[in-house]
């Protein structure tokens, strides 16, 4: 299983509430902070990658059902990749929704 293509892990670690570094300061020079645009593009790439894995599973299922492939191993690997990718995408979505709710509940 190739996990090197899951490049959104770095973005998730930067916004995670469990990281061990201190809270970022809102200074004028924020060159080392991740921009919202890069986080959004990482999330969109993650959704596209999940969709690609899902499509690959469908292709493998059709090949196996039609008798073009007799490798059950390839089918199971494709299903597991799609499953892990979907679980990760849902975790990222849940983190984003939780962050949104936290912002909405803040009182100014």
Can you characterise this structure?
The chain is elongated. The longest helix has 34 residues, at 72-105. 68% of the residues lie in helices and 0% in strands. Helix 2 runs antiparallel to helix 3 (72-105). Residues 21-29 have low confidence and may be disordered. It has helices spanning 8-15, 36-66, 72-105. The chain has 108 residues and is mainly alpha-helical. The chain is built from three helices and no strands.
Radius of gyration: 19 Å
| Tally of separate helices | 3
Give the terminus-to-terminus CA distance.
47 Å
Overall pLDDT metric: 78
The helix fraction, in percent, is 55-70%
Instruction: Give the SSE order as H and E letters.
Output: HHH
**Structural class assignment:** mainly alpha
Strand content: under 5%
- Specify the overall morphology: elongated
Number of strands: 0
The unreliable regions are: 21-29
Sheet having the most strands = none
């Amino acid at each position: 299983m190739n996990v090197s293509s899951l490049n959104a892990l770095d973005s998730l670690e930067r916004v995670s509430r469990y990281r061990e570094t201190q809270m970022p300061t809102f200074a004028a020079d924020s060159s080392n902070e991740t921009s919202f645009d890069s986080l959004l593009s990482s999330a969109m790439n993650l959704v596209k990658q999940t969709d690609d894995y899902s499509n690959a599973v469908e292709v493998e299922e059709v090949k196996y059902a039609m008798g073009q492939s007799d490798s059950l191993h390839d089918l199971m690997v494709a299903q597991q990749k799609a499953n892990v990718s979907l679980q990760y995408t849902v975790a990222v979505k849940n983190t984003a929704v939780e962050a949104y709710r936290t912002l909405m509940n803040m009182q100014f």
